[in-house]
């Protein structure tokens, strides 16, 4: 039996438990196990059956795949309130679509496959919410595909950086601080590494950003696409 979770509804559960009453949410969360992960720890591996569902409470998670040539391709940057491992809701678990690795120390709520299956049967709204989340992820991937075919590298990079700032940025006197490397930003924006370096230098000269190792401070987002 999983360890009982002492908290009532967490803000992290908003998306996953939308439309459910407090009693139902408490029952769902009571079946979860709280787990902590250290920085750069693999949480689950792509290609393996999704035997657990994770709801991120704090920290960040990188979702990626490795190409046949051994190159890492970032699929997504997951933030608190986001769920991964949705294939665990299927009777015969679908494989994880990518490897999830903690960006820093993070905390999650975890349900094993039998537990989340029972909860999905008992609370159909939970399964409906999971489907909605999965479709949102599909929409994000579709937008990236369309952007790759129709937008310039600069457009893609600017949009990716501003979205990261809105989702995970930390406000500071200098602007919005985003913790990300050039390599990861390049992969998320579907742009080459050297192109990212060139554009970031350009934006820094124009005062749009301030770049330090592993961090980008967005100072003037309206100038990101200024020639």
Would you give an account of this structure?
The chain has helices at residues 22-30, 113-122, 124-150, 153-168, 182-189, 193-205; strands spanning 33-37, 42-44, 52-58, 61-66, 72-78, 83-84, 99-102, 106-112, 170-172, 175-179, 209-212, 215-218. The chain is of the alpha+beta class and 227 residues long. The protein has two domains: 11-148, Jelly Rolls; 152-223, Winged helix-like DNA-binding domain superfamily/Winged helix DNA-binding domain (Arc Repressor Mutant, subunit A, Orthogonal Bundle), CATH 1.10.10.10. Strand 11 and strand 12 (215-218) form a beta hairpin. Helix 2 (113-122) packs across helix 3 and helix 5 crosses helix 6. The termini are far apart.
Q: Topology of this structure?
A:
Layout lengths: L21 H9 L2 E5 L4 E3 L7 E7 L2 E6 L5 E7 L4 E2 L14 E4 L3 E7 H10 L1 H27 L2 H16 L1 E3 L2 E5 L2 H8 L3 H13 L3 E4 L2 E4 L9
Antiparallel strand pairs: 1-8, 2-7, 3-6, 3-8, 4-5, 4-7, 9-10, 10-12, 11-12
Helix pairs in contact: 2-3, 4-5, 5-6
What descriptors fit this protein?
single chain, 227 residues, alpha+beta, Jelly Rolls, Arc Repressor Mutant, subunit A, 2 domains, 4-stranded antiparallel sheet, 6 helices, 37% helix, elongated, disordered N terminus
Care to give the gist of this entry?
The protein is of the alpha+beta class and 227 residues long. Helix content is 37%, strand content 25%. The chain is built from 6 helices and 12 strands.
């Amino acid at each position: 039996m999983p360890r009982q979770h002492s908290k009532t509804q967490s803000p992290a559960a908003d998306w996953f438990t939308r439309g459910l009453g407090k009693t139902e949410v408490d029952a769902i969360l009571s079946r979860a196990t709280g787990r902590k992960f250290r920085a750069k720890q693999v949480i689950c591996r792509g290609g393996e059956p999704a035997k657990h569902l994770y709801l991120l409470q704090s920290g960040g998670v990188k979702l990626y795949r490795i190409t046949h040539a051994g190159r890492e391709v970032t699929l997504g940057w997951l933030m608190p309130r986001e769920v991964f491992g949705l294939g665990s809701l299927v009777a015969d678990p679908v494989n994880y679509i990518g490897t999830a690795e903690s960006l820093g120390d993070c905390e999650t709520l975890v349900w094993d496959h039998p537990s989340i299956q029972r909860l999905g049967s008992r609370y159909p709204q939970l399964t409906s919410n999971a489907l909605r989340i999965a479709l949102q992820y599909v929409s994000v991937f579709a937008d990236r595909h369309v952007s790759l075919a129709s937008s310039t590298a600069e457009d893609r990079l600017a949009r990716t950086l501003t979205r990261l700032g809105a989702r995970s940025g930390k406000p500071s006197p200098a602007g919005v601080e985003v913790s990300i490397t050039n390599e990861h930003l390049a992969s998320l924006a579907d742009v080459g590494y050297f192109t990212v370096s060139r554009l970031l230098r350009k934006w820094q000269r124009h005062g749009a950003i301030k770049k330090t190792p592993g961090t980008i401070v967005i100072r003037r987002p309206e100038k990101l696409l200024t020639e």
